[in-house]
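A student in our group prepared the protein record below, which I am reviewing. Thanks in advance; the entry in question is below.
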Amino acid sequence: MPTAPSPLPAAAEAQQPPSLLRAMFARGTPMLWVPSGYFTMALTYMMLTSVTSIMFKNLGMDNGQAAQYASYLILAYTIKPLFAPFVEMYRTKKFFVLCSQLIIAVGFAAVALAMSLPDYMVIMVFLFGVLSLIGATQDIASDGVYVTSLDAPTQSLFCGIQSLSWNIGPIVASGGMVYLSGWLHTHYFHHAAGSFGADWIDAWRLIFFLVAAIIIVAALWHARVMPDGARAENAPTSVAQAAFLLQDSFVTFFQKRDVWLMIGFAFLFRLSIGLLEKIGPFFMVDPVAQGGLGLSNEMLGLIYGTYGLIAVLVGSLLGGMFVAKRGLQSTLFLLCCAVNIPNVTFLLMSIWQPQDLMVICAGVAIEKFFFGFGSVGFMIYLMQQLAPGKYTTTHYAFGTGLMGLCMMVTGVVSGHLQQMLGYVHYFWLVMAATIPSFLITWYAPFHQKH
């Protein structure tokens, strides 16, 4: 899952951060490894949990199966707090980063090779499951290097670079790789663009080889420039101690005041987004006769990887400024409206099925802009209200894990529901799913003063 910077102590935040220019050109600067580290994390995550759904559909799966299989791959990222303490026990964090990246690269190459086998789909899904576990381990170790190698002012300084670097991953994966798959399919292998089936194997095999090469290069680069990462102060020294810390973090989590309302908020805030995440791209590429817009992979990659991602980045920036100026408690419900109400653009496009690319791009950009604008409130709420306490970082991870669980559950059922209802009625369901988000946001507790 995408990981926001760990909440920092107030005293640390008050320190004067170093000059960005001086930090960027200092010897051993984090600029050498923070951008590449978080880009590699995001590329792995997006290839496994988002791009695979498009690939499954290209290969002939129906919407239900494609969304279901891709959503299962979120599970490892959802439960990563459960095995994070055990990663702390052995070797260095850099060791786990390098090992996980090498295994991921070999795994993607193995996926490409497996696509030549008769029962390639079974083997491929199994490999993706293994890679999701390794990818979650990469996230744990990379975050660990960031948190333990940088002092608090430098963490604050590089927070924006960290977030921007992560967001380049979706641009390359959901934009560049999907676009390239379509270009290879039609222009290099000369297959028909509008058909789904085994003809797509040729293009996707090259895509996975390319991703494997990128991650191998990243691993070699990180072997040279990434620091080892310091050992956390409360790092367990034995399996028994790691198990105790995990148990204690659960106990203290459920002792928080109004914890069930905060759990409900973490799970339900993005409910409608979870129903839309996989089906939105399917709607774009399905034929017009089946209720879709009939776009090619190339156009889908262009729209989501450029206009959509730019809209998310701009929305996130403005959302952060909005919260900083007016405070979270007074703006949280407005941010919830921003996340949910613009989903109506997909309902309108399913009713009218526009063929004008400007209209389609505008619809996606509107939805993504307001998603980025409103989602800032969700992450800040987890940091400021859910996470504070004895195990701040772990409890923050629990909150993001609940969000991931929501995305997995809604993703698993979304394709089957869409097939039952058709696109128009399904997008009406997405709008109805905004109601629980509004209710839980209205009653979200604020006990920590900021």
Q: What stands out?
A: Residues 1-17 have pLDDT under 50 and may be disordered. The chain has two domains: 11-235, 245-450. The two ends are 27 Å apart (CA to CA).
